[in-house]
C-alpha cells in the first residue's frame, strides 16, 4: 500500500499540475509590447535569446553583462528586430554598484520597470569541495546577493507597475548533487529567498509576481562544447527555453520547469525516493542523462579524458593536438579520472582512492550558464 501511494500521489500531482497550468491565460506576444524589461547575463546563451524574443515582441529592452562589445551587438540586433528601445549597461554583478546603475538607468531612461529577469551566474569548478570558503563567498556575491540587491533596488518601480521578477535557476537549486557544492548552495539560496519573499508579497498584498525557472540541459555554446559527446540526453534549444521563461514570467507563473520531464521527475524522486535519487546522483546513468555514447569503430576503446582540478571544461574539451588523430574516432569516456590532481584533496577530505566523476553531471543540473571554468578558483562572473 505504501508503494502504491508513492506511485499514485506523484501521478495525481502531475495531472493536477497539468490541469492547473493548461487552464491559465494563454500567452500572447503583444502582452510584452511596450513593456520595460531588464535582462541580466544577456551577452550570450539564454539571456541573449531572451533579449531577442523581447525585441520581436516590441518591448523596451535593457541588457547587462560584463562584455560591452558583445552587449553592443545584442543591442543592435534587438533594434533591428523591432524593440521599442534597446539599451545596455556593462559591468560585473560582483560589484553591487552595477546593480544600482541598472536600476537608475531604468528609472531615468525607461520611466520605470515592468519585468526584471535575473539570469547571470558566476563561474565555479566541478570537483570535490576543497574547503575554500572564499570561493563560496565570491559565488554567493554573484549568484545570490546580487539577485537580492537587484530585487531590492527595483522593487519600488515593480510595485508601481504591478510587475514581475523572473529568477533563472537550475536543478542544482532543488536537488543536491555531488561535485557542485558551492554552485548548488547559491541556487538553493535563490530558491529559499524568492520562495519566502513570494509568500510575504502575498500576505502584504504586493502586486509583484515571482517566477522561479528550473532549467535542465540547454544547448548553450558552453554546454555543447563541454558535454555534447558525454550526455545521453538531447539538449533543449536555448531559443525555446528563453521563450518559455518569458512566457512564465508574463503569465506570472510560480515556477517554470524546462524541459518539464527532465526537471520535474527528479523532484518527484527527491520527495518520494530520496535515497534512490542520491544513488543515481552518485553513480550517474541513463536515467539522469549521462553515460557512454555509442562506441566508435569496432574494437576501439573509449579514450579517457582528463580535467584540470578546477572544472569540467578541460575534461570534455577533447584530446590534445598530439592525440587528436588517434582519439577522434572514439567516444569520450563517461567518467573523468582526477587521481593526480586531487591527491591533496583526497588526503584532506578522505575521498576514494580513485575518483571517477560522471562527466555529464553538471548539465543534469541545468545551469543557465552551464560552462564551467578550468580554474579551480575563478574570480569573475561568466556573464
Automatic annotation (TrEMBL):
Gene Ontology BP, a term: steroid catabolic process
E.C. code:
1.1.1.146, 1.1.1.201
Which membrane topology term applies here? Answer: Single-pass type II membrane protein
Per the record, what are the reactions this protein catalyses? 3beta-hydroxy-5-androstene-7,17-dione + NADPH + H(+) = 3beta,7beta-dihydroxyandrost-5-en-17-one + NADP(+); 3beta,7alpha-dihydroxyandrost-5-en-17-one + NADP(+) = 3beta-hydroxy-5-androstene-7,17-dione + NADPH + H(+); corticosterone + NADP(+) = 11-dehydrocorticosterone + NADPH + H(+); 3beta-hydroxy-5alpha-androstane-7,17-dione + NADPH + H(+) = 3beta,7beta-dihydroxy-5alpha-androstan-17-one + NADP(+)
Q: Does the keyword Transmembrane apply?
A: yes
Task: List locations, semicolon-separated.
Answer: Endoplasmic reticulum membrane
Top-level taxonomic group: Eukaryota
What the entry lists under PROSITE patterns is as follows: ADH_SHORT (PS00061)
Q: Which residues form the signal peptide?
A: 1-17
Q: Residue ranges of region Disordered?
A: 311-383
Keywords, A to Z, come to:
Endoplasmic reticulum, Membrane, Oxidoreductase, Signal, Transmembrane, Transmembrane helix
Chief subcellular location: endoplasmic reticulum
Q: Which InterPro entries match?
A: 11-beta-HSD (IPR051253), NAD(P)-bd_dom_sf (IPR036291), Sc_DH/Rdtase_CS (IPR020904), SDR_fam (IPR002347)
Q: Name one GO molecular function term.
A: steroid binding
Q: Name one GO cellular component term.
A: endoplasmic reticulum membrane
Q: Where is the composition biased (Polar residues)?
A: 330-340
What positions belong to coiled-coil segments?
none
Entry similarity comment: Belongs to the short-chain dehydrogenases/reductases (SDR) family.
Quaternary structure note: Homodimer.
- Record-linked PANTHER family: 11-BETA-HYDROXYSTEROID DEHYDROGENASE 1, HYDROXYSTEROID (11-BETA) DEHYDROGENASE 1-LIKE B-RELATED
Protein's name according to its UniProt entry: 11-beta-hydroxysteroid dehydrogenase 1
Amino acid at each position: 500500500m505504501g508503494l502504491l501511494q508513492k506511485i499514485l500521489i506523484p501521478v495525481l500531482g502531475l495531472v493536477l499540475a497539468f490541469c492547473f497550468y493548461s487552464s491559465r491565460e494563454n500567452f500572447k506576444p503583444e502582452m510584452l509590447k511596450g513593456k520595460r524589461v531588464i535582462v541580466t547575463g544577456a551577452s550570450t546563451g539564454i539571456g541573449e535569446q531572451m533579449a531577442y524574443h523581447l525585441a520581436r515582441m516590441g518591448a523596451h529592452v535593457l541588457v547587462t553583462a560584463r562584455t560591452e562589445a558583445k552587449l553592443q551587438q545584442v543591442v543592435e540586433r534587438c533594434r533591428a528586430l523591432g524593440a521599442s528601445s534597446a539599451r545596455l549597461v556593462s559591468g560585473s554583478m560582483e560589484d553591487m554598484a552595477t546593480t544600482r546603475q541598472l536600476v537608475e538607468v531604468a528609472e531615468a531612461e525607461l520611466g520605470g520597470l515592468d519585468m526584471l529577469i535575473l539570469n547571470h551566474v558566476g563561474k565555479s569548478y566541478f570537483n570535490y569541495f576543497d574547503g575554500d570558503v572564499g570561493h563560496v563567498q565570491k559565488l554567493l556575491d554573484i549568484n545570490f546577493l546580487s539577485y537580492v540587491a537587484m530585487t531590492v533596488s527595483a522593487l519600488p518601480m515593480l510595485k508601481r507597475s504591478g510587475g514581475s521578477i523572473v529568477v533563472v535557476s537550475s536543478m542544482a537549486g532543488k536537488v543536491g548533487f555531488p561535485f557542485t557544492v558551492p554552485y548548488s548552495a547559491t541556487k538553493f539560496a535563490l530558491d529559499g529567498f524568492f520562495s519566502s519573499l513570494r509568500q510575504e508579497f502575498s500576505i502584504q498584498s504586493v502586486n509583484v509576481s515571482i517566477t522561479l525557472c528550473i532549467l535542465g540541459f540547454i544547448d548553450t555554446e558552453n554546454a555543447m562544447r563541454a558535454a555534447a559527446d558525454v550526455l545521453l540526453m538531447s539538449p533543449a534549444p536555448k531559443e525555446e527555453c528563453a521563450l518559455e521563461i518569458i512566457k512564465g514570467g508574463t503569465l506570472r507563473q510560480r515556477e517554470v520547469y524546462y524541459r518539464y520531464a527532465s526537471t520535474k521527475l527528479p523532484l518527484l524522486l527527491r520527495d518520494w525516493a530520496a535515497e534512490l535519487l542520491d544513488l543515481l546522483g552518485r553513480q550517474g546513468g541513463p536515467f539522469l542523462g549521462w553515460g557512454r555514447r555509442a562506441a566508435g569503430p569496432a574494437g576501439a576503446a573509449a579514450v579517457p579524458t582528463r580535467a584540470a582540478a578546477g572544472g569540467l571544461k578541460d575534461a570534455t574539451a577533447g584530446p590534445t593536438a598530439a592525440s587528436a588523430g588517434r582519439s577522434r574516432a572514439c567516444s569520450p569516456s563517461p567518467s573523468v579520472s582526477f587521481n593526480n590532481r586531487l591527491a591533496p584533496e583526497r588526503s584532506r577530505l578522505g575521498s576514494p582512492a580513485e575518483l571517477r566523476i560522471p562527466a555529464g553531471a553538471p548539465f543534469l543540473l541545468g545551469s543557465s550558464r552551464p560552462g564551467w571554468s578550468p580554474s579551480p578558483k575563478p574570480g569573475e562572473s561568466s556573464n
